[in-house]
Amino acid sequence: MLKLNRIHHIAIICSDYEQSKRFYTEILGFTVLQEVYREERRSYKLDLEVNGLYQIELFSFPGPPPRPSRPEALGLRHLAFEVNNLEEAIFHLNEYRVITEPIRRDETTGKRFTFFNDPDGLPLELYEV
Predict the structure, then answer these.
(1) How far apart are CA 116 and CA 122, in angstroms?
(2) Contact 51, 3 (CB under 8 A)
(3) What DSSP assignment string belongs to 17-59?
(4) CA 86 to CA 1: how far, in whole Å?
(5) What is the rounded distance in angstroms from the CA atom of residue 42 to the CA atom of residue 40?
(6) Nearest to residue 96, comparing CAs of 18, 21, 22?
(7) Would you give the end-to-end CA distance of the chain in angstroms?
(8) Element (H, E) at 93
(9) Tens of pLDDT, residue by residue, the chain (129 residues)
(10) With contact defined as beta carbons under 8 Å apart, do 18 and 116 qualify?
(11) Are 45 and 33 in contact (CB under 8 A)?
């Protein structure tokens, strides 16, 4: 049986590196671990820490193909972040003009959540615990 320990990182390719870097660091508050420009690929790679538990790798590549990004699109559905207070998190995002969907309730757990998008339309979720 294969034994997987945990998720090591999540990789995101963005269309506008500076805009996405600002979004993930200044708005979502992730900590920069390392930033590298790879000349041969004309690509940035930004390693971000998410509360000491996870790592997001933010990449820029010239001319990446578009991908469907609705939460119900085929493939990876969305990336969800746990929060303690959904209203406070929504207020913070809205202060930066990040649009959030109306609050929904998980039919199975009864927990509340909402979706919003990163600068490239990647669906992100806030899930209240």
Answers:
(1) 8
(2) no
(3) HHHHHHIIIIIS-PEEEEEEEEGGGTEEEEEEEETTTEEEEEE
(4) 38
(5) 6
(6) 22
(7) 32
(8) helix 86-95
(9) 878 678 888 999 999 999 999 999 999 999 999 999 999 999 999 999 999 888 999 999 888 887 776 666 666 678 999 999 999 999 999 999 999 999 999 999 999 999 999 999 888 999 999
(10) no
(11) no
DSSP 66-77: P---STTSSS--
Write out the two tokens for 91.
Answer: 């207020």
Q: What is the pTM of this model?
A: 0.86
What single letter denotes the amino acid at residue 57?
E
Neighbours of 79 (CB within 10 A): 15
